[in-house]
Amino acid sequence: MRPKLNDSQSTSPQESIAPTRLSAVDEFLTRHHLWRLAIILTLSPILATLLSLGARKHWMLDLLTCFRVQYVIVLIPIVLLFLWGRRWKLAALPMLVLVYNLVSISPAFIPVTQPPAGNRTFRVVVANVWSKNQKHAKFIEFIEKENPDFFLVMEVNAAWMKSLEVLRSDYPHTVSFSRQDNFGIALFSKLPLVDEEILTLGEHKLPSVFARVQAGGEHFLTILGTHPLPPGSPRQTKWRNEQLVSISELAGSSKGSVLLLGDLNVTPWAPRFADVLQTSKLRDSRRSFGIQATWSTGNPILRIPIDHVLVSENIHIHDRRIGSNVGSDHYPVIVDFSIADE
Predict the structure, then answer these.
(1) Does 276 reside within a domain?
(2) Helical spans, DSSP H, in the chain
(3) How far apart are CA 263 and CA 327, in angstroms?
(4) pLDDT digit of tens for each residue in the chain (342 aa)?
(5) Which CATH number belongs to the domain containing residue 239 in this structure?
(6) Domain ends where: 83, 107, 131?
(7) Residue from 332, 339, 329 nearest 308 by CA
(8) Are residues 100 and 119 in the same domain?
(9) Percentage helix, strand, coil, to 5, in the chain?
(10) Within this chain, do residues 154 and 296 fall inside the same structural domain, yes or no?
(11) Do 87 and 126 share a structural domain?
């Protein structure tokens, strides 16, 4: 006679198999020290994220804000592993840090309310061509293919300006300041410039572009282009911040439609970038189009978005994308936009 099992003794196959499988996986991970490895891997993004909260206090902490996407990529599989292994306490802090970084980068993927599209669509290209880049023909072919209405180039020296002369028949209107270092700058336009000037902003006096473009009808478009120093030391960071403040104030005081273009040497998650948006009264054209990292072309793992197109609230963004490799250490940015009818 078979003994009867009471309710407390009875188990379903699913209930008995699942813990067994989980225990086997847990034993495997423990035996091979993979739990310990996962914990070690979480330390870098957690520590970097926590330190980045002091970005305004020190230039090196400011650099840590650049890599929020990388922190997310590292943390997601580890957090999932902790949750799957029911290591709730181990998962708690990495999950909080993951959520913080996800929230930081999420605006790039969230649709933004835009003004109505205008009757005419314009295209602008922003490109740090790199002063050491010898592939001038490759960039010229890129411009001929993309056919922008105007384009801003940075790190242009005398050799670059000579090569770009071939485009002057299509882009007769230009304002430029070439230098033999990494801070030459030039704007080329198919559309007439009703006003143009090379500005020297901040204590370091690097050149920036100011131009007003006749954009059809009664529309005039103010274009500001700038390329501050990278934040590689306390002094360089100070000079970068001063230049960003100056160009932002100029954008904020400009009337009508405004574009602020350039390799700003700052990512969208840095406090200084938030200051730029607030002071300039512009919005990031990247919104709803993704991260679109541009530098460095040679390092996809640590690539970050530092080339920007910021626009006034009356500008409708139709498309934003990264261009092909033109031999530079930066990818160019291509933005199609229109100006809302008033």
Answers:
(1) yes
(2) 13-31, 34-52, 59-63, 68-84, 88-105, 136-146, 158-164, 234-253, 271-280
(3) 16
(4) 444 444 444 444 444 445 555 565 566 556 555 667 778 888 999 999 999 999 999 999 999 999 999 999 999 999 998 888 888 998 999 999 999 999 999 999 999 999 999 899 999 999 999 999 999 999 999 999 999 999 999 999 999 999 999 999 999 999 999 999 999 999 999 999 999 999 999 888 999 999 999 887 778 999 999 999 999 999 999 999 999 999 999 999 999 999 999 999 999 999 999 999 999 999 999 999 999 999 999 999 999 999 999 999 999 999 999 999 999 999 999 999 999 986
(5) 3.60.10.10
(6) 107
(7) 332
(8) no
(9) 40, 25, 35
(10) yes
(11) no
Q: Nearest Cα to 308, choosing from 240, 262, 241? A: 262
Instruction: Evaluate whether residue 34 is within a structural domain.
Output: yes
pTM for the full predicted model? 0.89
Instruction: Tell me if residue 293 falls in helix, strand or coil.
Output: coil
Mind giving me the DSSP string for 41-75? Answer: HHHHHHHHHHHHTTTTT-HHHHHGGGGHHHHHHHH
Cα–Cα distance for residue pair 159/162, rounded to 1 Å:
5
Query: Which domain-ending residue is among 107, 135, 154?
Result: 107
The interaxial angle of helices 34-52 and 68-84, nearest 10 deg, is: 140
Q: Which of 167, 161, 171, 165 is CA-nearest to residue 191?
A: 171
Other Cβ atoms closer than 10 A to 147: 10
Of 335, 331, 197, 326, nearest to 261 (Cα)? 335
- The residue range of the domain holding 32 is 13-107
Q: How far is CA 150 from CA 212, 335, 340, in A?
A: 12, 11, 19
Amino acid at 227: H
Do both 185 and 207 map to the same domain? yes
Same domain? For 17 and 134 the reply is: no
Q: Are residues 193 and 208 in the same domain?
A: yes
Distance CA 304, CA 158 (A): 29
**For residue 101, which phi and psi values (nearest 5 degrees)?**
-70, -35
